[in-house]
Amino acid sequence: MSAKEIVLYFDGASKGNPGPAGIGAVLFENSKGQREIKKFIGTATNNQAEYTALLTALQAAHDLGAERVQVFSDSELVINQLKGIYQIKDEKLKILYHQAVKLSGAFKEITYQHVPREKNKIADRLANEAVKEARNQSEPLSLSNHSKTIKDVSLELRINSELFVPSVIDFIKELMKKANLLPEQEPAVSLLDALQKAQKSSLEHNSGIHIQFFCDGESVRLVVNLENQRPLLYQQFKIQNKS
Q: CA 225 from chain center: how many Å?
């Protein structure tokens, strides 16, 4: 290999397809060892995650000053689309494909080669680790960890992934159940919808989601917004004691 040549392997992982997704890549540069990349990317399909992994790896290779790049992956779809063997029918993948083509044009020479999964173990491991680590950061919410009384609760949370959404909903339901309170209308559906919209905006703006929840025994107030931005949602629910 010349001093300006890099060999890279990439892969993506999606738990749900679409679902929580991660990317992994490893770059080998002559005489300088290897550079590993892993990142949680939120919700994506497996193919979207694979393309995102490729784009991230290509950008890293460009930042390292590579002039020639050899690309390897066990993603038959991505490799064969970039080689012109497969057509691209999915509109979202078309966008990622054109971004990959544009990045590829930054190198003097680039080749794409499909390899068996066993030849792509490092990138596969990194992609799955990214998802696993994001899951581990989502610690279960528990009333036992909350010092305030149930009927006077002020809760603030910062989330950066849909992985956190179910635990937030369950926690709020638990608060109201323990307080022996019953909302006149079920907030779970609107809450989930609000958090999913906030998640989408979070990914677009690379910002965390800030949740404020208040329960004073007479009402429930919920505010959802991106960090340092105006609220995306403001809802207030009257509550009544269970008979």
A: 18
- Partnered with residue 182 across adjacent β-strands are 240
How would you write the pLDDT of the chain (243 residues) with one tens digit per residue?
444 899 999 999 998 788 788 999 999 987 667 899 999 888 889 999 999 999 999 999 999 999 999 999 999 999 999 999 999 999 989 999 999 999 999 999 999 999 999 999 999 999 999 988 876 654 444 434 443 444 444 555 554 444 445 555 566 666 556 555 555 555 555 655 666 666 666 666 655 666 666 665 566 566 666 655 555 555 555 555 444
- Contact yes or no for 77/86 (Cβ under 8 A): yes
Domain boundaries, the chain: 5-137, 143-241
**Residue 243 CB coordination number (10 Å):** 4
CATH H superfamily, domain 5-137: Ribonuclease H-like superfamily/Ribonuclease H (3.30.420.10)
The residues, ordered by sequence, that sit 6+ positions from 186 with a Cβ below 8 Å of its Cβ are: none
How far apart, in Å, are the Cα atoms of 94 and each of 29, 48, 86, 89? 30, 10, 12, 7
Sheet holding 181-183, edge to edge: 153-159, 209-215, 219-226, 231-241, 181-183
Q: How many whole angstroms from its chain centre is CA 69? A: 27
Three-class SS state of 107 = coil
